[in-house]
Amino acid sequence: MSSDLPAPSSITSLPQEQQFRVLDTLFESSPELHTLMAPVLANQTFSSYSTLIDAVGGRMSALSAANSSKDRDILVGILGSHPRLGQPKGAPTEHLSELSKKEQANLNTGAEEQAEKLKRMNAEYEEKFPGLRFVTFVNGRNRDAIMEEMRERIDRGDADREVEEIIQTVLSHSGTIFRSQDAYYQHFSITQTGFDLWLLKEYLFMGSLNTLQASLKLACETTREVSHR
Fold it and tell me: Chain centroid to CA 100: how far?
């Protein structure tokens, strides 16, 4: 899947297939998310990717608050589309978002014993919370840290809280990088192009989100200093 994204203001005029590709770049590919957001993408204009991510968050929160089993099934379908953390080496990754590809690469290092333990804990989590996948903001943490958090959430056993935490993590997962990107574009008055997204992709594969944010902040501060001389 290409990581190139169109200008956010142009999304409403794109063919539906391209609109869905935008969603699949920002989030994990999900038919339920496509169905949920199709009318929004067709009728609402977005000034930035941050506002699009917020719109997705608003729709998911509305599903979470609803008492309808149908709405709950749609939400679980969206949240359950996230890949299992630490999936086997060599497993297909073309369907994953760029952030998930990097997370999987970071977690697929270390002893096989750890990999087997993570696999067992994924199964235990999914038995505890049917339809969900364990989702967390990896951001460079190792398997031991991830499994410690997973154990705490399994033992807590609160399905409603789990859904809310996954929603917030999914939004943060996408929002952190693209809010930084939006700030960068606004500061330098740059139009979102394939080249700009290529640069973003390089950061995703070469460094952590913290590295990207620090680099963007430094670039903005350096430009301010130069302009004030």
Answer: 7
> For 7-20, how does the pLDDT look when each residue is reduced to its tens digit (9 = 90+)?
899 999 999 999 99
Q: How many domains does the chain have?
A: 1
The predicted-structure confidence for 112-129, as pLDDT tens digits, reads as follows 888 889 999 999 999 999
Given the structure tokens 């620090």, which residue do they identify? 214
Q: Which residues of the chain have pLDDT under 70?
A: 1-4, 87-110, 175-229
**Distance in angstroms (rounded) separating the CA atoms of residues 47 and 175:** 15
Report which of 73, 107, 61 is spatially closest to residue 87, judged by C-alpha positions. Answer: 107
- Structural element, H or E, at residue 173: helix 159-188
Q: Residue 209 sits in a domain of what CATH number? A: 1.10.3330.10
C-alpha neighbours within 13 Å on the C-beta side of residue 32: 17
Q: In this structure, is residue 3 part of a structural domain?
A: no
Whose CA is closest to 108, among 133, 143, 148? Answer: 143
- The model's pTM is 0.69
User: In the numeric block, which tokens belong to residue 213?
Assistant: 């944010």
Angle at 118 between CA 113 and CA 124, to 5 degrees: 130
CA proximity to 22, closest of 113, 38, 169, 185: 38
Amino acid, res. 122 = N
